[in-house]
Design brief:
By secondary structure, the protein is α/β, with parallel strands linked by helices. It has two domains: about 220 residues, 3-Layer(aba) Sandwich (Rossmann fold); about 170 residues, Rossmann fold, CATH 3.40.50.10490. Helices cover about 45% and strands about 10% of the residues. Bound molecules: 6-O-phosphono-alpha-D-glucopyranose.
Length: about 450
């Protein structure tokens, strides 16, 4: 079935550079393993379990999210307070669909400006606060657990300051909380204050939550057509459900090829879009991939790159460094914007005449092809993924595709793609070091472990 979502060229990513091998081969066994993994992912029994809820988001009712978006749209600024899965999705959507300029934080003609308070760096939080007019700013605090220290610290500081300026009654009218529908500290806060809130279904993990209120509420406020975004995810779901072989199913192909290259020692994956608008897509993907797969000594390290910028930074390593990476180059066929380069009118610039009359996007595309071709010519495995346009529909498709790919790859690796035990340890150590009740032992262990780091020192 074609939905005009994307095309994936995989000829140069087949291991050993060959054509698709058949008949009892590793490829056939992999196809079978992927069929099983897909069955596991989509089984009725699993669908209701923690971690699997994101599979239902393409069908979810968006009425509440759209209503919240309309309410937020009246503000001049929206500060989304959250980190990891509670921040990167909104940034990714906004960067892709509203302000694809890779060196500007936020620009939107229709809606408010979006700011994300993720890191708990006092300099960043203070600077952000000074950029907004509190009386025209909404706080959207997002946390699945309702306890992440960075989010809670930023929330506490911003909330108390908002109350100081506006008084509690008015400040409450500028607050939206997105959290678990039943449990957690933020849910208790909502019950106490009776403020506006939206649920993040308990079965949806943070890094798989972009198609819920977590990623959609602020996006809707900024003017993103969230219905289209969801429709793209739904269309991708239909494609994947209707595709029963490796060659037809882009999720099986991506997961399967990552697995085959992983077996050949390529445990890094480079995602390199040639589009400023997809820069934050790589950030979002890096969390999804890294946290889902890095377990039990296994995993694949996500490397974020941006074409053509990283041609001037990383491509030397990619072409001549260790052969331990699988590359995915993403291209956008129609960039919407066309910039025809003028012929130089200054004598000293005459050598640039070869650029005159050329279209800038065509040059970027030529560079993408040149990089992919260079990698392929050196025998480095490279996938070419092309989307027709960077719009809400295609972005929704890409998001859902990569979520499925990640979950399937986790299954192939025999790890749980929906937990994050390694991150939880760091959270517990932080609570211990910050004196949170019940975490005294963790604080002690953390101090002990750090003492080993400090046991040998050089200062200058
Ligand atoms: O939404 P929260 O519960 O505040 O979690 C925010 C982030 O916290 C941790 O770092 C988890 O590993 C992430 O997966 C999660 O996205």
């Amino acid at each position: 079935m074609t939905q005009n979502l994307l095309k994936l060229d995989f000829g140069a990513a087949l291991p050993e550079g060959g054509s698709v091998p058949r008949n009892g081969s590793e490829w056939d066994a992999l196809e079978e393993a992927l069929r099983d993994a897909d069955g596991w992912l989509r089984s009725d029994a699993n669908r209701r379990r923690d971690g699997f809820g994101w599979l239902d988001l393409p069908q979810a009712d968006l009425a509440e999210v759209i209503e919240a978006g309309q309410w937020l749209a009246a503000f001049d600024a929206v500060i989304q307070v959250g980190i990891g899965g509670s921040a990167l999705g909104s940034l990714m959507v906004a960067n892709a669909l509203l302000h694809p300029c890779h060196n500007e934080l936020s620009r939107s003609e229709r809606g408010p400006r979006l700011y994300v308070a993720d890191n708990a760096d006092p300099a960043g939080t203070r600077a952000l606060w000074e950029m907004v007019d509190p009386s025209r700013t909404a706080l959207v605090v997002v946390s699945k657990s309702g306890s992440t220290a960075e989010t809670m610290a930023n929330f506490l500081w911003l909330w108390e300051n908002l109350k100081k300026v506006l008084g509690e009654e008015r400040a409450l009218k500028q607050l939206l909380v997105v959290t678990d529908p039943e449990k957690g500290l933020l849910r208790a806060f909502v019950a106490e204050k009776k403020c506006r809130s939206l649920p993040l279904p308990s079965t949806v993990g943070g890094r798989y939550s972009v198609l819920s209120a977590v990623g959609l509420a602020a996006s809707a406020a900024l003017g993103v057509d969230v219905t289209d975004l969801q429709a793209g995810a739904r269309a991708m779901d239909e494609v994947l459900l209707g595709a029963g072989t490796m060659e037809e199913n882009p999720a099986w192909l991506l997961a399967g090829l990552h697995w085959l290259h992983f077996l050949r020692g390529r445990n890094m994956t480079v995602l390199m879009p040639y589009a400023d608008g997809l820069r934050d897509f790589t950030e979002w993907f890096a969390q999804l991939w890294g946290e889902s797969l890095g377990k039990e000594g296994k995993g694949s390290t996500p490397l974020r790159a941006l074409g053509a910028v990283d041609q001037h930074s990383q491509v030397q390593l990619y072409t001549a460094g260790p052969d331990d990476k699988l590359f995915t180059i993403i291209d956008v066929a129609d960039r919407g914007e066309r910039l025809i380069l003028p012929s130089p009118s200054d004598a000293s610039l005459a050598p640039l005449a070869y650029l005159g009359g050329q279209e800038m996007g065509a040059m970027l595309q030529a560079e993408a092809r040149a990089t992919a071709a260079t990698l392929a010519s050196l025998g480095r495995p490279v996938l070419w993924l092309e989307i027709p346009r960077l719009d809400a529909f295609r972005l929704g498709g890409l998001v859902y595709l990569y979520e499925v790919v990640t979950a399937l790859t986790g299954r192939l690796l025999s790890v749980d793609p929906f937990d994050q035990p390694g991150v939880e340890q760091g959270k517990r150590f932080t609570y211990g070091l910050m004196g949170r009740k019940g975490f005294e032992e963790e604080g002690r262990k953390s101090t002990e472990a750090f003492a080993r780091i400090e046991s040998r020192t050089v200062s200058c």
